[in-house]
Amino acid sequence: MKHVSILIPNGHTSLVNIAGTHQIFNQINGISTKMGGKPVFDVHLVGLSKEAKQDTGLFTVYPDCTIGEVKKTDMIIIPAIHNEQYEGIERNKEFIPWMIDHYKNGAELVSFCIGAYLLAATGLLKGRKCATHWAHAANFRKMFPDVDLVDDRIMTAEDRIYTSGGAYSYLNLLLYLIEKNAGRDAAILASKMFMIDIDKDSQSPFIIFEGQKDHGDELIMEAQHIIENNYTEKMTVDELAAELALSRRSLERRFKKATANTVFEYMQRTKVEAAKKHLESGRKTVHEVMYDVGYNDPKSFRDLFRNHTGMSPADYRSKFAY
Known about the structure:
Elements: E1 2-8, H1 15-34, E2 41-47, E3 52-53, E4 60-61, E5 65-66, E6 75-78, H2 85-91, H3 95-104, E7 108-111, H4 116-120, E8 129-130, H5 137-143, E9 148-149, E10 155-158, E11 161-164, H6 170-182, H7 184-194, H8 218-229, H9 237-243, H10 248-259, H11 263-281, H12 286-292, H13 298-309, H14 313-320
Parallel strand pairs: 1-2, 1-6, 2-5, 6-7, 7-11, 8-9
Antiparallel strand pairs: 3-4, 10-11
């Protein structure tokens, strides 16, 4: 049976992540027993003390044990921590050497949503892929530039380290872990019982592209505003560089450093975000939206849209139109 340590961080943490994981893993134990097997997960709530009051004042969680009482664990689960990121890490820094030691001794590490910040603070994500909530992508890259953040993914799995994207995508990672430890049949049954969409692997349809603007480069900020205010036009990178009195090479270098996107990527993502808003309103056809954002080739528009959202424009409109 796999010993699972669900961390109970100090501060404001996701009780949904904690309670949901506890419930589903224990439910899997019951399923496994009914299917003639043995319980799969030995689940424990692990804290820095025997009482963890939430900053909201609404809840108090009483861990089963403290980190000093856990001599061996097979899986460590980090829920989302909603405090300001540096504060969240500082208030929970005692978990960091403990996680590193257990990882070196064979434990798996799992982070949900913005729990990835605490995981990244261990240094164990350096050079590895990581998912987190798409709205935190720019800030996460700024804090941990040596981590390969894949902000369109619902989950990652690499070298005994697993991460999930935003909010309730942690459920998809739980299904993955259930399949890995209890088998495909148990994962499918859990999917049906809890009505979780199995084999879902992208959070792209849910991303709202706003562009990284907390960078301090005034000229690049102007470039962003020009792009966002003229997304219906077929502006080239050379034309934008000329308008800003920069060489194309300088513009590309500064733009990438400031926004984590190339100029062309930023132009495309701006067009796609505008198209999404038009499609969500449901008042225009896909072709009308295509023309509105500066495209006249249906295949090119469809390919661009699918590349950034994982869905066709028509499917997106059907799913999100109001």
